Amino acid sequence: MKRQETGNSILLLQYVAFGILLYGFKLWVIHNYGNATPHWDQWDGEAANLYKPFTDGTLEFKALFSPHNEHRIFTTRLLALALLKINVLWNPLLQMIVNAVLHITAIILNIHLLLKVTGKKYQPLLLIFSFILFFVPYAWENTLGGFQSQFYFVLIFSIGTLWYTLANEPFSKKWWIGIVCAILAFFSLASGVFAISAAAIVSIIFYITGLRKSWKQLLAIAILLVLLVTGMLLTPVLPDHASLKAASVAQFYSALVNTLSWPLVSGFSSALIRNIPALLFSIILLWKRPPVNDGKWILLGLIAWSVGQSMSIAYGRAASSLSSRYLDLFAMCILINFACLISLLKDQLEKRNGLAYAGLIGWLAFFFIGLKLINNDTLSGALNAKHAQGLEQEKNVRNFVTTGNPSSLKHKLPYDIPYPDPERLGMILNWPEIRNILPTNIRPDAPAGRLDAFTNWILAHYYLFMITGLAGTLFITVYHVRNLKRQ
Which stretches does DSSP call E strand in 216-281? Predict the structure, then answer.
């Protein structure tokens, strides 16, 4: 019992060290390239439609569920209001450091779920792989955007949906928690419906194969399908976004190959190499049909979810399917494939089979080559351009706020101001409700928010998180080595 408790403590320490180390790298990106000036969708999505009515007392609860483009970002709005209430001022940098915590939470939850398939002994390998996968800032649009928490919420609640609906009997308390997670996944991002569809697919497999064949299971499937259809009906269709969608089967196929290949060079062979672990895992699982309480079924749900994410982005954003903001979702798909690979090779790896090691190393080599290709001058250029853009936007908005001169916003180059319409931006900036909560970098006369100093301190001391996380990792490694010697 004592040995088990010690083992669980070490597992927890591994998560903590991983989280702190990865957080340090995210803080480094925000510290070096982030800016507190609200950007683009924030002026409508937060300032005009959320903060103004909240401040003047006219915000209705149902407005939290209203559409934002094709999405209903209830969870993001709740977080934004909470941070505004706590800090008093609007601070996108505070939002960014909180979003980083959400992202790391989603990664750790996914790893913990994957351990039900690979076994706890593979936790260090999954953590090392995940660190290499996620510390590269290819998804910088999410990292440097205060209004991007929806991408992290949808991950957290999608994982919760699959975990609780598939691992528990229908209508048990935990199963209902999964249903709540499913609803929150949709009210985080429209693609949350794919968590519901993945849970429904695996639940149907349980029923038709006889693994869980009962009236409760049939009713559970019906509830999931009703939620799926409801989510699809509640997803707005915007005529202005029609040009963003795939206009033909060929365009959809090309975009899908892009999403399934990333980070490798786009192509059918690349897509096959990246996803062959998940493909083989699914075939073998459906052939063997282990008991319903086997964690492999949840992994099948994650595979179905990841395919749904790729297909939805390939169709809905065909021309920009590899936009930075979507890459956090695709990266999670790669982690799922890695867990599938470990599951497939686990028995042979433990027998020290050379071919198994060759297969694992070969797949990792393709992955690392692909990751190296995106970690180049293009990524560095994008980050530097984002930083310079933020400084220019800050200067122009601050000039308008301090002088009231409309020329500070008009006749500027694209992205020299943080909103496409200078007149509407000026109108929003002149609203007293918004003027009073503007970040201090664009309203210098404003008193600092309650958490502004805390935010600045954390960002300036990102290296402390790196050092602490690295020290924790080294300590755990030494502890493992000593234990192995004793054995």
Answer: none
